[in-house]
Design goal:
The complex is a heterodimer of chains A (73) and B (140). Chain A has 73 residues and is mainly alpha-helical. Helix content of chain A is 66%, strand content 5%. Chain A contains six helices and two strands, in the order βαααααβα. A two-stranded antiparallel sheet of chain A has the order 1-2. Chain B has two domains: 61 residues; 64 residues. In chain B, helix 1 packs antiparallel against helix 2 and helix 3 runs antiparallel to helix 4. The chains are: A mainly alpha (73), B mainly alpha (140).
């Protein structure tokens, strides 16, 4: 799963530690999500969505689903 | 773009406090175990009542350690929980797989030295540390 967490964080000039604290996770978890090593739970995705004031699909998107959509087109 | 800092949820201090609580109970259990193991021989000349008391203290502190660990795990975030539980799963698996052949080797006197439960505890500690370190590095 891909995400725009790093871009959104950079736009707000937040550090990973600040974002981690706001999402109530460790800095390691934020880093792992940003680098695509770990996919967050739905609950954490909702928390990120609320924090950034965006819909979940504007932050996270499924690579397989994107490929499928391209194939269908 | 709004550059206001996100509000502090106190997550870091909460997990730090939880880790401190776990460290306290681990230290207390270690002390209680040392007292139970060496006390009868070195401190109270194998007095049965005092030995029973030391065993009771050890069990009570052990229960405290289990509860502290349970609380610590529940306060971890989802990635930390995954790393921790993966390490625990590997540790339990290794312990079961090694303990039975080890017991057989001892029963049929294939090994010359005395098989002791502490060997298993050492193996479990080492396995947990390696697994936890591997998990942490993997998601760094």
């Amino acid at each position: 799963m891909k995400n725009r967490l790093k871009v959104l964080r950079a736009e707000r000039n937040w550090t990973q530690a600040e974002l981690a604290n706001a999402l109530e996770v460790s800095r390691q978890t934020v880093n792992a999500i940003e680098t695509g090593k770990f996919d967050p739970s739905l609950q954490l995705a909702f928390r990120a969505s609320r924090l950034f004031g965006m819909r979940i699909e504007e932050i996270f998107h499924d690579e397989d689903h994107s490929n499928l959509a391209t194939e269908v087109r | 773009m709004n550059q206001a800092k996100p509000k502090d949820t106190g997550y870091q201090s909460r997990t730090f406090k939880s880790l401190g609580r776990l460290a306290f109970w681990a230290g207390a259990w270690l002390a209680a175990t040392a007292l139970m193991k060496f006390g009868p021989r070195l401190l109270w000349n194998k007095d049965v009542l005092l030995t029973l008391l030391a065993v009771c203290v050890n069990v009570c502190v052990g229960i405290g350690l289990i509860l502290a660990q349970k609380r610590y795990i529940s306060e971890l975030d989802e990635l930390q929980k995954k790393i921790y539980l993966d390490a625990l799963a590997i540790t339990v698996g290794v312990a079961v797989i090694v303990a039975i052949p080890y017991s057989v080797l001892h029963t049929y006197a294939v090994i010359s030295f005395q098989a002791d439960v502490s060997h298993l505890l050492e193996l479990m500690s080492l396995t947990f540390l390696v697994s936890f370190f591997y998990g942490s590095v993997r998601y760094r």
